[in-house]
Amino acid sequence: MYEFFRKIVCLSMHIKYRIKVIGGDNRPYKNGIKGGYIIACNHQDYGDPPLIAAVNKAHFSFMAKIELFEKNKFFAWLITKCGAFPVVRGAGDGSAIDHAIADLEKNRAFVIFPEGTRSKDGNIGRAKSGIAVIAGKTNAPVLPMCIKYGKKGFRRKVWISVGEMIPAEHIALNSDDRTELRRVSNLIMDNIKMLMDGMSEYGDPLPKQYNPKPEKQAEEESK
């Protein structure tokens, strides 16, 4: 049943978008790896999860905000069949993390968007600690990916860059302290940002990020 829905999703994505894959040889299935790894990707659109499924072959699992399961029963049933499970955002949902860990142990490919929410301008934000917690507890390698969209319209262009797998030993946690969690999260996000930088020639340039200076620093510079 899952494979049937996956193929339908893949077909619909290739009809809806003009997809270009960069670094396609880095896709795990090309090297005989079926699952047991984490896919970490930037997040811009509700179409991100099915696009990831459209260019990879695996049994996928991913978190989706609980509101998506409450509004429409048919839609909830559909995304569940495609591997989604609910998470309560901003509530430290331990059950969702346990679910992700269990899926990885079943040799599935767990998809996560480390930023925790969609980017409004296409720029990549900071990662939340969930990605580090899951990677640390499962000792699973992480596959960085990055999606960039072209202008909206019929058969919108999409570029999907696939990076090299980050080995589990590079993201192993020595402890559960915040410093270690931040180190792992930053390492993963840095890999995603490098993929985005490598796609600068595609689509429109991203707007410059506004980084206001901390108040103390501003005061010192004004003296």
UniProtKB/TrEMBL annotation:
The keyword Acyltransferase applies. GO terms for molecular function: 1-acylglycerol-3-phosphate O-acyltransferase activity. Residues 213-223 have a biased composition (Basic and acidic residues). Residues 203-223 are annotated as: Disordered. Residues 37-150 form the Phospholipid/glycerol acyltransferase domain. Keywords: Acyltransferase, Transferase. SUPFAM superfamilies: Glycerol-3-phosphate (1)-acyltransferase. GO terms for biological process: phosphatidic acid biosynthetic process. The keyword Transferase applies. PANTHER family: 1-ACYL-SN-GLYCEROL-3-PHOSPHATE ACYLTRANSFERASE. This is Acyltransferase.
